[in-house]
Amino acid sequence: MLSEEEIKEIQEEIKQYPYPAVACIDALKIVQHHRGWVSDESVKDIAQLLSISNEEVDGVATFYSRIYRKPVGRNVILICDSVSCMIMGYESLYEHISKKLGIRFGGTTSDGRFTLLPNSCLGDCDNAPALMINNDHFNKITAEKIDELLKRYK
Amino acid sequence: MEKPLTKNIRPDSADYNLEDYSRDSGYSNLRKVLKNMSPAEVTNLVKASNLLGRGGAGFPTGVKWSLIPMDGDSSKQKYLICNADEMEPGTFKDRYLLEGNPHQLIEGMIISAYAIQASKAYIFLRWAYKKAEAGLRKAIDEAYKAGYLGKNILGSGFNLDLYVHSSAGRYICGEETALLNSLEGKRAVPRTKPPYPAISGLFGKPTVVNNVETLSWISHIVENGADWFKGLSLTGTGGTKLYGASGRVKKPGIWELPLGTTMRELLEDHAGGMIAGHRFRGALPGGVSTDFLIEEHLDVKMDFSTVAAAGSRLGTGTMIILDDKTCPVAFIHNVERFFALESCGWCTPCREGLPWVEKMLASIEEGSGKMEYIDLLNFNAEYMGPGNTFCAHAPGAAEPLQSGLKYFHDDFIKHITDKKCPWR
């Protein structure tokens, strides 16, 4: 069941569009904002609210890379793996973070604190390598800097 | 040297609000347009300026606008969309404009919407641009309060609502018809053209989609005229360009320079040359969907037609530099893996060709590549090229591949014969 708050926020988005189904991506983002990810049950609830099929909602949810259909940790680390960051050494950065957290790309730490994911270009190419933790951007990342950064996210 | 687009951007893109923008005569061009110009006059001015689209394709902006049916019935819904889904790897120019001067874009959008008589406009924004999103929402709020957006703008009778749509990821959303599907809440697969968006776009209504840098020009062209705009470039094409460089150069960054500045000047004077101990081997001049240029092209003037004549595309104008300490096969593998992951899966050459290319490149890089892969890679580059696919995604992917195979042929062969990457 969607919460009253979620429903209210989704209905607010629907207002600006000619018909409810247009708010599908907004609805998925709203649910994810509140729950961290989008479960099968939430897909059904969104479909019902927007008067479209579950499959349509799931088709949209699985298309977009920033909609999570599996649970993620409390903090999501997105490492830029595009070419400018490759030249500037994201691969060794990834190995460092991976070793430190004991997870590979796609993994979540056993305490549920971090999920580690690759991400295409973050638009920070002149300050590569770059990464995001949740909604925060960081650049010119070094092993020392990442050790310091990770401490801030509980 | 004039830098109209970036002259007011503060260090670290610090807040530049409506008050600051107004002090620098912001929104005076909107007043001028609404008071003295007809929509057709605005379109004709932009047409006369020969402003070429800054999203990468370089289509003339005024021509795009003039395809919108203007049959005098203002009750017919039309849309203006700003494509701010900057996701081309190696590109960070729109972010700079969005964060540094949002009102410049908003004023440009209001004037552009007036030209095509659109009463609704959207900024389709890349999800990762959180700072830009907050800045845009604040600036739009300020513009509504000042009467520049909403009903009866400045007493002219013209109405415009402007919304920000933050995306949920996927490179393909930057393709203009895929963007329309995404904005309609669907999977971002491209649409057949024709009909072009000018006839049937968002919700089947006439729609113009323009890039951030393109729309940021509009108020300046209104202020200074078409001849002034043409005079800004070195090649007569018109305007300045936001150029950038990333990779192993001393000062990677972004610079507003006359359109037609050479790659050598960008590399040596602005990017400060290569980092000590590194040699320039080549560059993708405007994002990953452009062909490599190499040392012999350094004096090519970076404008749309001159770069095309050299066998590449200006694209977004932000160069990715390949140095001699980076393996060209690994570079190209990274780029093709990106394209394979970001393919929407709609048409065969892209969905099947890209993963095949990616696998062959991976095995060459790992030392298990076969000599026949060279021909197969060239075959795929051709098969994914223009005319065989639904949109420009796979043809874009083919560009660095085909040019890389040509310019770095010996490196590919060495990987295969030595059964290892010489850089590892």
CATH topology of the largest domain in chain A: Glutaredoxin
Which CATH architecture of the largest domain in chain A is right? 3-Layer(aba) Sandwich
Largest pleated sheet of chain A? 4 strands, mixed
Determine Rg of chain B (CA atoms, Å): 22 Å
User: What's the CATH H-level homologous superfamily of the largest domain in chain A?
Assistant: Glutaredoxin
- Give the distance, in angstroms, between the N- and C-terminal Cα atoms of chain B: 45 Å
Structural class of chain B: alpha/beta
Identify the notable features of this structure and list them briefly:
heterodimer; A: 154 residues; alpha+beta; Arc Repressor Mutant, subunit A; Glutaredoxin; 4-stranded mixed β-sheet; 4 strands; 12% strand; elongated; B: 424 residues; alpha/beta; Ubiquitin-like (UB roll); de novo design (two linked rop proteins); 3 domains
Q: How does this structure look, described?
A:
The complex is a heterodimer of chains A (about 150) and B (about 425). By secondary structure, chain A is α+β, with helices and mostly antiparallel strands. Chain A has 2 domains: about 5-65, Orthogonal Bundle (Arc Repressor Mutant, subunit A); about 75-150, 3-Layer(aba) Sandwich (Glutaredoxin). Chain A has helices at about 5-15, 25-35, 40-50, 55-65, 85, 90-100, 145-150; strands at about 75-80, 115-120, 130-135, 135-140. A 4-stranded mixed β-sheet of chain A has the order 2-1-3-4, with helices on one face. Chain A is elongated. The two termini of chain A are about 30 Å apart. Chain B is an alpha/beta fold and about 425 residues long. Chain B has 3 domains: about 10-230, Rossmann fold (3-Layer(aba) Sandwich); about 240-325, Ubiquitin-like (UB roll); about 330-420, de novo design (two linked rop proteins). Helix content of chain B is about 45%, strand content about 10%. Chain B has helices at about 20-25, 30-35, 40-50, 60-65, 95-100, 100-115, 130-145, 175-185, 210-225, 225-230, 265-270, 305-310, 330-340, 350-365, 370-385, 395-405, 410-420; strands spanning about 80-85, 120-125, 160-165, 205-210, 240-245, 255-260, 280-285, 320-325. In chain B, the strands form 2 sheets. Chain B has a 4-stranded parallel β-sheet, with helices on both faces. Chain B has a 4-stranded mixed β-sheet with strand order 6-5-8-7, with helices on one face. In chain B, helix 9 (about 210-225) crosses helix 10. The mean pLDDT of chain B is about 95. Chains A and B meet through helix 2, helix 4 and helix 5 of A and strand 5, strand 8 and helix 13 of B.
